[in-house]
């Protein structure tokens, strides 16, 4: 299994349910050594090895405690508690986020014989706050620095504890009320904010720093002390209070108990160059941000194109301005001057005005202005219906009345209404350098900023460059007020947005003359093998949070996981991605030697599944192998899909093939249904019926009832190249299917992800079953439901989910004898009835999703929840997919790779980090 994005790759070394980040590199090794010291033998211990250095609050973290037989170990967890263990593994969880110091003492006969106190391991635990709670709480921060810049102090030494918060609470009428600093020794200090009831012009209450900062403390006894800062927030309207805490462990030493941090093995090769080995053979589908919809290309787009706004760190609800100079607010709307200077949002959330940052230039030197933003959004809307599926629907759904996702707006050369709707959706003003979005219904800032922050669809292109390379949009009809002419031009341009008609200069741009508008540009692209990113020489140096990069980035899409691993292990790569889960023991060994750092985090908003194709293009299938044969309608039979779902061994998959049990590592969890934890609405499997389990007896019964039991088929189960984990899973599944029906001969087959994506064209999909994923475009339920379930969806449509097709197929089985070897004529009328019934059920599900989406975007979560639950149940009854794993995210880097501003959270946003993509301007090497 590997990491992916809406269509394509896979985080091979699958992510972990624990989520950890590092600040100290792992233990020297997992073995104990002895050395002679005079007449006695002294044990030399390796420090504890966490399964990853960054965990998630409330989730389990596995610790490896290398203690010899006959000894026990008292493990000090840095949160004020310790645990005595006998054995190699300890599972712990931390309630609050923070930085925790961990060590253990080896015990025998009730006394300490050795300890790792001078090899303290630091684990970073990240916050775990629900979307609703995030509006009411503030995540605290603590900063201390003791001996040699580490959190180690002497007994009696003054410790300056700097306290604060990441962001104020975002909810209406919320403010910070009090700070409480617990010292871990029974003492708690209360600190009040200054003037917390002061009003802002917007009507919200101000959020102020603590009145005492830093807080100076000292400790009279040695040991580990969890400094815990709790911030209490207040709703000044209701009087309700909320609180959230953060812990920083400090080590206080004396002559009898010494502390020091574990030393990293730091060796900085190739300064100024970041080398990335990615186990994703074949590279991306495109570098065109309005065409590419896969995670391999997404990573490059994230770095070479600007968006108006971007996510702030790992937060999915807070944003920072990128190409926009400011984040617009409702408060600026009433003042026209402020509206043009800073941007604004209308009080009814239907108009958004953005001030474009002055001085922006593409890598070729072209100025980037409001005109370029306007031009780019028009292009994005025009390409919204391209095939394979494109990302344009994300913005278009907010800008065009009654828009159906994944379809073109201008439906014919004389569709003047569609053309007029496009030009009415966004306007620009050169005098004020502002762009204005005119939404067709109220959309909250978080949802709309989500769409703008996505580089796939939200990227700003250089309009002058597009025209120079022959990809310009014909706006003559606009300037002449001739809608007929404009409709013809727009319709003609839409035809260039589908496979086979792309402008190759925009599909594969490279070199400093191309119109890259982000911090990097593509200097060299070797198709399917590697890409070299160099800093945009015109990128400003004064954009807060978006520094001008100094490093060249080399991304290598290597041929197999062994190559990727060896590049990393030998020091030739600084980052490795998408390794199969079977590599985790080797990675942990590197980490224990100080040669790697493993970060994991959750939620990833990344789910994996096997997709059925209900309308297999048999001609294209035979091109993969002339021996393959399967009727194109084989998987249109609902009982066949259900039988296949019950023939998959989910427990063996998660425990042994992925390896949660086998490797003592939480790579993810089984799931059921499209909606997963981390979205604004999540439907747990306990609220659904029909989630399949492994039951070969029932699977065989279903196949016999389906009428297809005796139908001989030979077909591939397609897996992304390099994904050895799921190749093994496909082998397991194929053996089970053959066991219950010898007529089924399925074989795993590797194809590059870009090739799999190219097959996702309605009527042109020759893949009967393939392993794929969905990762969030934005963290709302409608994103997942639209792409995976809707009839025009990015996945459903190319997989043959079309009500008309099913109705016609029903008539075919009802009205004629289908001549196919092994098919039972007596069952054909039943098959026709089943096909008709699933067509009706599918139409009903689509209608349910449409209403649920409306409620979700409008903020009616109660109404949306019930309808999404109904739609999920309907999808479950249709057995549209075989759901395998909701994956945790994992990053593997060298110890010298650090996050921007010392915070790895810049790389941990699930909108890209969850699928193993990185913003390289937020990596620091050295």
TrEMBL record:
Superkingdom, natural source: Archaea
Gene3D superfamilies in alphabetical order: Dipeptide-binding Protein, Domain 3, Periplasmic binding protein-like II
GO molecular function, one term: peptide transmembrane transporter activity
Domain Solute-binding protein family intervals: 344-793
One record GO biological process: peptide transport
Protein name: Extracellular solute-binding protein
Source organism of the structure: Acidilobus saccharovorans (strain DSM 16705 / JCM 18335 / VKM B-2471 / 345-15)
